[in-house]
Amino acid sequence: MIPALDPATLSPQAQRIVSPTAPEKLQEVAARGAAPGIKPVEIPSMLLLLTRSERPAVRDAAEKTLAALPEPILQGALSGDLPTPVIDRLVRSYSDRIDVLEKLIAMPRISPETVADLAGICSESVAELVSTNEERLLGHPPIIERLYLNKHTRMSTASRLIELAARTGIELTGIPAWKEAMAAIREELIPEPTPEPTPDDIAFKEAQELAERLASAEEEDTHEEIEEGVEEIKKKYLPLYAQIANMKVSEKIRAAMLGSREERMLLVRDRNRIVASAAVRSPLMQEGEAALIARNRNMSDEVLRIIGTTPELMKSYTVKKALVENPKTPLMVGQRLVQHLRESDLKALAKSKNVTGPIKDAARRHLERRNS
Prior knowledge:
Blueprint: H1 12-18, H2 24-31, H3 43-50, H4 56-67, H5 71-78, H6 84-93, H7 98-105, H8 112-119, H9 124-130, H10 134-139, H11 142-148, H12 155-167, H13 178-185, H14 199-214, E1 223-227, E2 230-233, H15 238-245, H16 249-258, H17 261-267, H18 273-280, H19 287-294, H20 301-308, H21 317-325, H22 331-338, H23 343-351, H24 357-371
Antiparallel strand pairs: 1-2
Helix pairs in contact: 1-3, 2-4, 3-4, 7-9, 8-11, 12-13, 13-16, 13-18, 14-15, 16-18, 18-20, 19-21, 21-22, 22-24, 23-24
């Protein structure tokens, strides 16, 4: 947690300006960045404290100035050792300025929480900058997690981060498919850092861009059933399928974690079980696509088991019902879910010819219990 800035750390003159008893006009002028006698390195601290003012005009002016400091003041502030809360605020205000972030990230009092927050939203160039400090990464693993799940982080950089964590025995619980990602990395050659993106980085990014162009607002599957038990990829998804097919296992797993629904619907059918498992563990998985997968009789039993044991997905009645009705769902999962179905659905299951005998028997038992 980022601590609040203590006014006592300011010079006496700056303390007088930020004091609640200071003249309002004086504070309004200072909030616009005009504070004669105050060193540039201290102005961001003064402004941050003025953003807490109970005077709306002062507070609003300070917020506006702090978000876009005059360049001389900004450069003067960056030449000093700023307090932790000021660094945090400036990192958020200048997240698109690599020249500013280079200096802020190097400051000794920057909080690892600030770096982790930045890692989740930053550009490719900033991600490369953040990923170079191994001591900081190992000391605060959420930074690695956020970089991995940031679509702007190069694939080669993400692979090196996973390898670093695996090599040093760090478990990245913030990555839902951490075990799958770690298993894949152990079988692959990790590229050395390069100033420019590698060919694989470029190919991975192109696949993400293509997936975004193909993304649909409708809950549409990437496949269609041409006859019972036989699926075919829809023509419009063939280019994306071709790009994904050329990916390494580690790249497929990361695409499953941060890609589009269309990518996950392709990857959840991958012949490699760890890729399919990663796709269904994606933090971006929504109820609609989970229902599509749950009712598909061509899915692997492992994929269906993961859905049936994921608490977030089990909040959906539609997903529960689809799993129970799917004969590919592992029996223990299906039997456990039967008890959560409505009476009308239990009656339909008890008579259905499309479910397994044990599920029909379980439905009958629960009907008898409810009616007894």
